[in-house]
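Example 3.2
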Amino acid sequence: MRPTQREEINLDELLEKATRVSDEAEVYHIRHRDEPVMFEANRIKLVETRESSGVALRIIKDGRIGFSSTSDPGNADGLLRNTLEMVPFGPEAKLGFSSHRTFSPVEVYDPQTESLPMEDMINLGQTAIDRVTGYNSDVMCDATVSKGLNTVTILNSNGGYATYTKSFFSTFVHGTVVKDTDMLFVWDGKSSCHPILDTSEIVQTIQSQLEFSKNVVPAPVGQVPVIFTPRGMAGALLSPLLSGFNGRTVLQGASPLVGKLGERMLDERFNIWDEPATPYAPGSRMCDDEGVPTRRLPLVDGGVISTFL
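Structure, written as tokens:
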């Protein structure tokens, strides 16, 4: 569907005006709503609702790209003027805007997330804190339970058009234990497009961390076997690897993977896939921010460097 009448800026009209004075034009609109419930020192601290919206305009003119954005709903003409002024200083245009209008559906919206009452979110967070502090009364807990919506609309002068709404929900609990000069930090959380109505797994993980912390031993010296938990894998290896696979980093020559495309760099049992069609995963979507359909991409396939992002 096209943007509704609630949109302050008429996106079709803005695109039409931009097309008249450029070779190609693209309009990107996002509306964001966030409703966090925050807890501090075992008690509720803050409940709020935040809404924002913005429009970005990108044009190709005389072989260069001009870009500008605004959150002012009445500044469509100013947005176009600013974008035109940026063209002489913009990068050389080596792309054309997507003409896609049909996309494989990806489930990222759950109406139950949008309709979940704030009282339920408060009870969810407080119950999780009570269970953690009931297990260990020395723990001081902070927590955040949050829900929200993102609606994205993209249209361009090549006929490309995409719009989708994504719901998101997250629950995170952090605990601190102070004994003499020692401080212990424990935490766990989940995020999804679905509402997270059961915090039992989060609580149990934190309780396990508290239990393990009771036995303090000296760190071993010398070579020792290492077990990577999923969280340890993400923290120690995944972030550096993704930085190396970043297309901009590769283009700038800053990635250690420059010139390694198609080479076996890792164990043949090692695979990493970018899977943007996982149902109800917070990072999933039917298209990227330029209206190009998303698809499953192998970054590492059998140890071979296969794709950059």
